[in-house]
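TOPIC: backbone geometry
CONTENTS: sequence, structure tokens:
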Amino acid sequence: MDSASSPKISVVIPVLNGVKTIEKAIQSVLQQSYQNIELIILDAGSTDGTLEIIKRYESSIYYWHSKPDGSAYLAINMGAEQATGQIIAQLMADDWFEPGVFAAIATSYSQHPEADIYSCGGQFVSFDAVSQKYKTTAIYNTPDVLNLSFYNVCFAIPAMSSRFIKKTLIDKVGLFQPIDPQGKHIFSADREFLLRAIANGAKNQVVNILGHTYFAHAGSATFGKNRATQLKICLEHMATAEKYLAQPGLTAQQYSVLHYWYIDQSVRFVLFKLLQFDLRNALQTAKEGTQKYALRWLIALFATPCKIVA
């Protein structure tokens, strides 16, 4: 089969105790009209019935295992290393792909061979307990949101599962960086990967199809209300901003975006700490912010809460 016109798409699904959602995720891959795919599932040692569902589809799975892996991004790295496709996609076990998206990505691959990433539209849904149906809460499918830029990665939606990535790009820039210097799991490794891709000149092609659905629920890192997770994500973003601010070759716009991203996340960290009545850490972070950014940090102290409320 001609890989230029019909590329193999490797889909990597990390999962831990996803018995309620994993079957929908698997079916969204296997029921695609496009057939040149390989499905890779990395289970981190589920004990809730997830393995029984995976085994039900074992004949259609290229590779799977069940063993502790440390984090979703460590698992995705393992899956990417197992993958043999020209394109790699990741899918969290509580999300799903929409019909027709693989065929659209394959067509774009053949029409735009110069691209490194193919980005489709996506949507957020929540589950309505009254109607027992999924309800769309937001849609992101326009080029201005899906374009690969520092601003979109930092302030819009990274849309990592809406981005189908060439294996050659991963070979060039490396896998996710899932562990911080303290050895702790990183929640926002997707943003760092995309910034790294941009810094290495990655070319993005927007594909005009709504192809991915993100299930927003209380247990998700992005939409959950876990304060410790929110605080850690703020610190991760601040560290990533500082990392890329120290790199040469940034444009003035990229430099400005990273500065404001640091300020915004610093202010959010202070606000979260105040909500926890942790005045000492809130004041310490505020002091560091004003020392670095002076008036800009103080302006953000008023602007960011307004943005959060809005």
User: Anything to note?
Assistant: The longest helix spans residues 252-275.
